[in-house]
Amino acid sequence: MTPYEAILGKRDTRAFEARPIPEETLHRIVQAGRMAGSAKALEPVRFVVIESQAQKEALARCGGFTPHLPTAAVVVALVLEPEMGVVGAPLTHFRGPFDAGRAAQNMMIAAWAEGIASCPASMHHAAEAAKVLGLPEGYTVANTIAFGYPAGTDAVRPNRPRRPLEEYVHRERW
Amino acid sequence: MTPYEAILGKRDTRAFEARPIPEETLHRIVQAGRMAGSAKALEPVRFVVIESQAQKEALARCGGFTPHLPTAAVVVALVLEPEMGVVGAPLTHFRGPFDAGRAAQNMMIAAWAEGIASCPASMHHAAEAAKVLGLPEGYTVANTIAFGYPAGTDAVRPNRPRRPLEEYVHRERW
Q1: Closest residue of A to B104, CA-based?
Q2: Which of A23, A38, A4 is nearest to B6 (CA)?
Q3: Nearest-CA distance from B49 to chain A in Å?
Q4: Could you give the CA distance from residue A76 to residue A29 in angstroms, rounded to a whole number?
Q5: Contact, A112 vs A25, CB < 8 A?
Q6: ipTM score of complex
């Protein structure tokens, strides 16, 4: 699988087999996230890797669209350092979540290349999610990603169509 | 190059050759960004693809760390739909920039796999950047990405070391 094939083929998937993810595969996924670049090389993103059923279920209670979290083999919570995820200066505001998105995509593409599907799940109740994860004061959850071997039709379905390219792309100016 | 090799090898690069990026390669880069998933499949990210020197220089005047923008073959501005990039509800606040980060990383990995380097550049003066790009009311620039064939040592330097994995990764809880 070429990088381009992995990028285009990867689809957000919510149906997983019960099969666990081998530790060395999980290591590569996390490593892919760690190696994403960040604004001014500040590396504001941290990961909490969750495999215990109790923690997955506790996190699932912190979001509105999370029924897939407890069925995932692994959930990775992307955590932002203080001042990188809070409402504040416009740049701070963008940078943390943007860098978290870069790290998340690296992990999801690396996983997909090894046959592992994934899907982010927002934490609508961010303060409760921080409590579940035991985050220090000021740290925030940017997002969580569920990883697992895909089950059923989710494994083979074609990707959801996107808006036409002409709507996405403007040249020189809007 | 495997997807994992592309992800680990990709480094943020600011020194570019004057060589242009072929249109079909640019198409694949943009396509990679378009195919990134988004929260609730809202597809809040749009691209403005900039090749004219005047527009690159105008954008460079909107950021604090942008000397590489005018030397890039192509600059892609990632634009967020209204309500997706503004300070507001915590989730809205995270989602837009997070999804922009996912799209940006897809583009940068796809580019790297074809020998093209890249580096984001924040728009510190977001309102001016919106004016340069002619964005409609309410649309915001999440970030810009400079793309080009790497020049000099930036092409071969090893990646900047990251914090140790143990600092990045917690298991089950912080």
Answers
A1: A102
A2: A4
A3: 5
A4: 10
A5: no
A6: 0.94
